[in-house]
Design goal:
8 strands; 2 domains; Cyclophilin
């Protein structure tokens, strides 16, 4: 619809001035053009052929007027294009989608242990998932929150260990994984709140233990156009760089998340819990050079010893105690 409107306006602004004879070029420019063309014509003539090559003033003026008219026509086109491009894009604003209006197809819940005092009940949130907009990521999350989990293949056996003891341990982990590959899926049992960047991101669901030998999912992006436009928007990182975890947007700076993540839902109950997660104390200045990674690497999730692995990590352990589908 917007394209049709712009083309119509373009035609009006471009052709009406031309058909009505409006002159968008100053008269002085036309006069200068006539003088210049006359001078060039005379300068190219030889003395012998002067009389025979002399151009009639009337014809010269007629040609220059035609040239000026064509120049005016193309100038009007350019001017019209500039005018139309500067028109307000109200159609774009109306077409912009909001996560508030996105259809919720499924609901899951997460209960956090360690966020409040031990004597208090677990903190619970309910997430509404956008199955129509992010069908593949939503399907994976729905499986991960169940006891049956998400069936994922075991990682290839690493046979490059330097020490024999380490290699034997790696072999044991791989063999155990292969035995249960078709029967046990990855779930959030014993997973944790991985990282908290205040007013930017809450990274949740770092799997550990028996699931570290599984291949991470590859989250697909259907280009739904949904952004982190509201506090509580839930997303996963595009591709397979962030394992099985998801991110809650606590409000604030969303640029990095919009660039890297796929929106999959939003928190519909327990926004006070989101506020608690956003304000918990974290490790600071552990990263040499004060550089900040945009997202945790899988190496960090699975026991990496690099300094940046502890940056923004909660000082107290917060686990996902119970999860499921509503």
């Amino acid at each position: 619809m917007q394209s049709i409107i712009r083309v119509t306006l373009f035609a009006i602004y471009a052709f009406i001035p031309y058909s009505c004879g409006f002159n968008l070029v100053p008269p002085s420019a036309v006069t200068s053009s006539i003088k210049y063309n006359t001078y060039m014509s005379l300068s190219m003539m030889s003395n012998d052929g002067y009389q025979s090559s002399l151009i009639d003033d009337t014809d010269l003026l007629s040609d220059d007027i035609a040239t000026s008219t064509r120049r005016n026509f193309f100038t009007s086109i350019v001017s019209s294009a500039v005018m139309i491009s500067s028109l307000p894009t109200s159609v774009n604003a109306e077409d912009k989608r909001s996560t508030i209006d996105a259809t919720i197809t499924d609901k899951i819940f997460i209960e956090f242990k360690g966020l409040s005092a031990p004597s208090e009940p677990n903190d619970r949130i309910v997430i509404g998932l956008f199955g129509n907009d992010a069908s593949q990521p939503v399907s994976i999350l729905k499986q991960v929150v169940t006891p049956q989990g998400y069936k994922s293949k075991c990682k290839p056996l690493d046979t490059t260990r330097t020490f024999e003891k380490e290699q034997l341990e790696a072999n044991k982990v791989y063999n155990n994984c292969i035995e249960k590959e078709d029967t046990v899926g990855v779930n959030y049992e014993y997973s944790t709140v991985w990282r908290v960047v205040q007013d930017e991101r809450l990274d949740i669901g770092a799997v550990s233990g028996k699931f570290i030998a599984r291949e991470p999912p590859n989250f697909e992006d259907k280009q739904s156009g949904l952004k982190h436009d509201e506090k509580g928007v839930v997303s996963v990182r595009r591709g397979n760089e962030s394992g099985y975890g998801f991110t809650i947007f606590p409000g604030g700076n969303a640029q990095t998340l919009d660039d890297e993540n796929v929106v999959v839902g939003r928190v519909i109950e327990g926004m006070d819990v989101v506020d608690k997660l956003n304000s918990i104390p974290v490790v600071k200045n552990a990263l040499a050079g004060n550089k900040k990674k945009t997202a945790p690497s899988r190496a960090c999730r699975y026991g990496g010893n690099e300094l940046f692995c502890n940056e923004q990590k909660p000082l107290k352990k917060v686990t996902l105690d119970k999860t499921g589908i509503l």
